[in-house]
Amino acid sequence: MTQVHQLYQLQKLDTEIDDKKKRLGDVLKAQKEPPALVAVRQRAAVAAAELQKWQGKHQNLTLEVGSVSAKAKTSETRLYSGKVTNTKELTDLQHEIEALARRKAALEDEVLEVLVKVEDAQREKTAADEALSTAAAQWEKQSAHLKADQNELALALHKLMQSRQSKAAVVDAASMQEYEQLRKQKHGLAVAGLRVNMCLGCRTTVSANKVKEVDEGRKVYCGGCGRLLVTP
Ligand SMILES: [Zn+2]
Q1: Span 107-137, pLDDT tens digits
Q2: What is the distance in A from the centroid of ligand 1 to the CA of 138?
Q3: How much is the pTM?
Q4: In the chain, how many H helices and how many E strands?
């Protein structure tokens, strides 16, 4: 095998490796959660926090109602105990009981308002959780397929890299350096095949004289793109 053909073998492998690496990158990128799923996850988190907030308010108000009731009860007990005879104290107690009753009524109105909020929040949370579970299941199905693609590509790449290593081992250092240099300059394609007299790297027509030299296995560069030419 001529040196040019050795490089051509290497080029074919590198082209395939580049392609698989790009596809692997795409597959990895595609496994990022889609915006719709991220949004619905966010919605469920907000709904859960909202529900917790209203449930907490409801609990606090209920405790407050209980405490106001207890205070009123204590005052009533004292008022009707017969132990209080001082008129001023009796009037104060009556006023206090009335004030506590007003406070309790106001609190109970608030409890009702908050209960409506709790119900709304509960409804929204149920809806958000349902949407999330649907979206997550759908995504899991899709990404399972991507995961399989990822594994397949990684395995193929591993095999290709091994082949490349053995092919590269027989190429001399100077040719390898030139090849790598050309790859860098020519978008990954250092060695271009000839189709009759056309360079497949840039579609330029190559002179008959050059074609002959390529056929002989000599190092010939395309006048159009500067790539090394080879007869496949
Ligand atoms: Zn060319």
Answers
A1: 999 999 999 999 999 999 999 999 999 999 9
A2: 47
A3: 0.67
A4: 5, 3
Q: What local confidence, expressed as pLDDT, does residue 142 receive?
A: 86
Return phi, psi of residue 207, to 5°.
Answer: -65, 155
Q: Is 194 left (phi over 0), alpha (psi -120 to 50) or beta?
A: beta
Strand 198-199 vs strand 191-195: parallel, antiparallel, or unpaired?
A: antiparallel
What's the 27 CA to ligand 1 centre distance in angstroms?
32
Query: What count of other Cβ atoms lies within 10 Å of the Cβ of residue 183?
Result: 19
Q: Which domains are delineated in the chain?
A: 31-169 (1.10.287), 173-230 (no CATH)
Question: Residue 161 pLDDT > 90, yes or no?
Answer: yes
Distance 218 CA to ligand 1 centre (A): 16
Per the prediction, the chain carries an average pLDDT of 96
